[in-house]
Design brief:
This protein is an alpha+beta fold. It has 2 domains: 90 residues, Probable tRNA modification gtpase trme, domain 1 (Gyrase A, domain 2, 2-Layer Sandwich), CATH 3.30.1360; 79 residues, Alpha-Beta Plaits. 22% of the residues lie in helices and 34% in strands. It is built from 4 helices and 11 strands. Strand 10 and strand 11 form a beta hairpin. It is globular.
């Protein structure tokens, strides 16, 4: 009998690029969970998030971040958030705490995640992102669901960088878009 084992593989192969004052890196160390609930259950869900992760349910358009920055909750809709956390944080206890108070769905293999940083990151992103990302408007802990060059995406600030998420089905095209934008900065 053949003993085949499946192992996870990053959507973009662990991509990294440094060019023209820009660093782009695929984030492969994160897990993504969709968390949804009824409005009447939100207080219980918030208690579960606080006790298990040290975060709260954020307002739409903002993020809640744990004190050690290992967990980020993205406020995408009034009744749905994405919980993004370091892979090492995923435990059965954590999943049980969330699923007992809300609908929790593992989304990690559905999203490719890139982090872009460097002094020219704004010039790269302004080529494709329709949102004003200037530091005075899109401040720390902001998040938005948008379209970048017709591709679905989620973008949020992470200190001095931006994290871009796109469905894995469009990851290669999304990466190509970022690479093309970097060429305009050069």
């Amino acid at each position: 009998m053949v003993n085949n084992r499946l192992s996870p593989r990053p959507a973009l192969g662990g991509y990294e690029l440094t060019h023209a004052g820009i660093q782009v890196k695929e984030r492969v160390d994160t897990e993504v969970f969709s968390l949804a609930c009824r409005e009447s259950e939100k207080a219980s869900v918030n208690d579960g998030l606080q006790s298990s992760l040290g975060v709260v349910w954020p307002e739409v358009g903002s993020c809640s971040v744990s004190t050690d920055s290992s967990v980020r909750v993205l406020g995408l809709q009034r009744d749905q958030v994405f919980v993004v956390l370091n892979s090492s944080q995923v435990t059965d206890g954590l999943l049980n705490a969330l699923t007992n108070v809300a609908w929790c769905t593992q989304q990690s293999d559905s999203w490719a995640t890139l982090e872009i940083s460097g002094p020219n990151q704004y010039q790269v992103l302004e080529c494709t992102c329709p949102i004003d990302l200037s530091p005075s408007v899109f401040t720390e802990h902001h998040v938005a669901r948008t379209s970048m060059e017709h591709l679905s995406s989620i973008i949020y600030r992470n200190n001095d960088s931006f994290v871009l998420m796109t469905p894995t089905s469009s990851a290669r095209g999304f990466l190509h878009m970022i690479e093309e934008s970097i060429q305009f900065v050069d």
